[in-house]
């Protein structure tokens, strides 16, 4: 498992800490494209999603 403190420390060294502080350890709510456009360049290494989206198939939920 990844050491989150190490990951955060690495992120802070790539981008100005003042700027990164606004983004780290927080939940951000909004349109993902608009939010990502506001994020500092170089602050994201990977984005993981859980597709499929809008595939046209019916989904059964319990």
What's this, in brief?
By secondary structure, this protein is mainly alpha-helical. It has helices at residues 4-14, 17-21, 32-38.
What is this structure's SSE topology?
Layout: H1 4-14, H2 17-21, H3 32-38
Description:
With 62 residues, the protein is mainly α. It has a domain of 35 residues. The chain contains three helices and no strands. The radius of gyration is 16 Å and the shape is elongated. The mean pLDDT is 75.
Structural class comes to mainly alpha
Number of strands: 0
Give the oligomer, counting copies of the same chain as homo and different chains as hetero.
Answer: single chain
Shape annotation: elongated
Query: How helical, in percent, are the residues?
Result: 25-40%
Number of helices: 3
- Content of β-strand: under 5%
Spell the H/E element sequence.
HHH
Largest sheet: none
Question: Distance N terminus to C terminus?
Answer: 31 Å
Rg on CA atoms, Å = 16 Å
Global mean pLDDT: 75
Question: Descriptors for this entry?
Answer:
about 60 residues, 3 helices, mainly alpha
């Amino acid at each position: 498992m990844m050491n989150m403190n190490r990951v955060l420390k690495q992120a802070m060294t790539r981008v100005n800490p003042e700027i990164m502080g606004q983004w780290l350890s927080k939940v951000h709510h909004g349109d993902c494209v608009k939010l990502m456009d506001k994020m500092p360049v170089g602050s994201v290494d990977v984005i993981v999603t859980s597709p499929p989206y809008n595939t046209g198939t019916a989904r059964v939920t319990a």
